[in-house]
Design a protein that fits this description.
Blueprint (H helix, E strand, L loop, with lengths): L1 H24 L13 E6 L3 E21 L5 E6 L6 E2 L4 E5 L2 H36 L5 H33 L2 E3 L4 E3 L9 E2 L8 E16 H12 L12 E5 L10 E6 L9 E9 L10 E18 L4 E2 L5 E6 L5 E5 L1 E6 L2 E6 L6 E5 L11 E4 L20
Parallel strand pairs: 1-20
Antiparallel strand pairs: 1-19, 2-9, 2-13, 3-5, 3-8, 4-7, 5-6, 7-9, 9-12, 10-11, 10-13, 11-12, 13-18, 14-15, 15-16, 17-18
Helix pairs in contact: 2-3
Length: about 400
């Protein structure tokens, strides 16, 4: 009995020791600490040719615009165009009642005929008296009276001819024609309305849409900065024929036709401190309409040796100055203060602080402490595989 109990206790103790041994083996081994400096993704600074652009907001303006106004007073008899249609220069748009002007024209022509008839008699009398005064058959005074009467009649004839021409012009003005070719808008008068000569209200407006102006404003500060960059050689300016302008429409789409910068205002607007720039765009499909809000992308110039750094690699010091982390000659992290001019896409244009060949850290900045050694790899490359033979954590046993 005692021997059986002793064997049972020994068997239980052995089982506990074996269980403890197995539980100890099932625990994973701690991972070995990583070997070598941390990897950081870098780019190598190299200058490149960059076209610098400026995006300015503005509105479209028709290249030609004309307001149709009557030049005589009368009643509108007809409207001879369709609102919103294209009209040609010289096309009749309105017909004003011509009855009174036809009568005035006929009266002026009759007055001219009357003067012309009397002029024939006076001219014959002057010629006859001219011969008679030479032989003393008539007095000099009679000849002078006949000559003066002839000259007065000739002056009257000139006046009546002018009156006839004026009456003809007024009669022609009863047909209100289009001064330019283009698209005409709505009519402000209807048939039967009384219109007056040179009234302030236009009958209609014609706008030429074959090409459009785009007027944008630029601040004088930006204009002075542009001139300074051109003066110090940072930018190179093209010729007048090399000033293209692209257009972005209200819905964010790009206008397919490139325009040209044609005009720059010489006077600064005192209320806004800006100058007006004007570009002209072909409008073959008439997609641009007057008054549209657009954004014009102007090419300021070309920087032949620009240094661009992605924005993700630029940080700010406590003072707000721009700075980057670089990998120095000893493969250690070195902070570098820089000066940035502007953004170009998703990058900063750097004017000072970096040179060709510098290695700027873009990835792994949280591990790039100043003075710590790092392993520089090209930005965007796949992470390096762990070295062969490195300790790996053992899988847990079930």
């Amino acid at each position: 009995m005692h021997q059986t109990l002793r064997k049972s206790v020994l068997f239980t103790a052995a089982a506990l020791v074996a269980g403890l041994s197995l539980s100890g083996c099932s625990k994973p081994k701690p991972a070995a600490p990583p070997s070598g400096p941390p990897e950081v993704g870098i780019i190598v600074v190299k200058p490149e040719k960059v076209s610098l652009t400026t995006e300015l907001s503005g509105r479209t303006v028709p290249q030609l615009i004309a307001e149709v106004r009557p030049q005589v007073t009368g009643i509108v008899q007809k409207r001879l165009y369709t609102e919103g249609s294209d009209v040609k220069a010289g096309q009749v748009l309105y017909q004003i009642d011509p009855a009174a002007f036809e009568a005035a024209y006929a009266s002026a022509k009759a007055a001219q005929a009357r003067v012309e008839a009397s002029l024939v008699s006076l001219r014959l009398t002057e010629e006859r008296y001219r011969d008679l005064v030479k032989i003393k058959a008539v007095s000099q005074q009679d000849y002078d009276v006949a000559s003066a009467a002839l000259k007065q009649s000739e002056a009257d004839l000139a006046a009546t001819k002018a009156a006839v021409e004026m009456a003809r012009i007024n009669l022609a003005y009863t047909k209100v024609t289009a001064p330019i070719s283009g698209r005409i808008g709505r009519s402000s008068v209807t048939v039967g309305a009384l219109v007056t000569a040179n009234q302030s209200a236009a009958l209609a407006t014609i706008q030429q849409l074959d090409s459009m102006y785009v007027d944008v404003t630029q601040s004088t500060a930006d204009l002075l900065k542009l001139k300074q960059n051109l003066a110090n050689g940072m930018l190179k300016k093209g010729g007048a024929a090399q000033a293209p302008v692209k257009l972005i429409l209200e819905d964010g789409s790009s206008y397919p036709v490139t325009g040209m910068l044609k005009f720059s205002e010489v006077t600064v607007d005192q209320s806004t401190g800006s100058v007006t720039l004007r570009a002209v765009f072909p409008n073959p499909k008439q997609a641009l309409l007057p008054g549209m809000f657009v954004r014009a992308v102007l090419v300021e110039g070309v920087n032949e040796s620009a240094i661009l750094i992605p924005q993700r690699g630029v940080t700010r010091s406590p003072k707000g100055d721009a700075m980057v982390m670089t990998v120095g000659a000893e493969e250690k992290v070195e902070p570098r203060p820089i000066k940035v001019v502007r953004t170009v896409g998703d990058s900063w244009l750097v004017s000072d602080g970096l040179k060709t060949g510098d290695r700027v850290i873009l990835e792994g900045l949280q591990k790039a402490r100043p003075g710590t050694p790092v392993k520089a790899v090209p930005f965007g490359s796949a992470p390096a595989a762990p070295p062969t033979g490195a300790a790996q954590p053992a899988p847990a046993k079930k």
